Amino acid sequence: MNPSQSTGAADDDPVRADEESVLADLTGMLAILLDEYGLDDVEVRMETTFNRDLELESIDLVTLAGLLEERYGERVNFAEFLAGMEFDEIIELTVGRLVEHVVRSLEAAEAV
């Protein structure tokens, strides 16, 4: 698979490396996770935190990692992204910071 192809259920949707598109993708992924908890009315914004605002637990982040891989393939490595953080940074991780990581990762893959 070449870096410009997407994977998983979103194969029909082109992958765009801009914050608005990535935020929309991520919001859809989070809707899947939040629906399991009956939290479908939570608004996801760039400043939304995974822990405090969305109340996601570590197992939810594992599920999110899988959804990111389905959408973006190996171009976005969520585990590696988290591994470079201190515990406090992970606790305060915002949707915006993840969106920025995804955009950078996609842009880097396109440059290769």
TrEMBL record:
Entry protein name: Acyl carrier protein
- Residues forming the Carrier domain are 20-98
**Which InterPro entries does the UniProt entry name for this protein?**
ACP-like_sf (IPR036736), PP-bd_ACP (IPR009081)
Sorted alphabetically, which Gene3D superfamilies does this protein's record hold?
A: ACP-like
What PROSITE patterns does this protein map onto? CARRIER
Q: Which residues form a coiled coil?
A: none
Source superkingdom: Bacteria
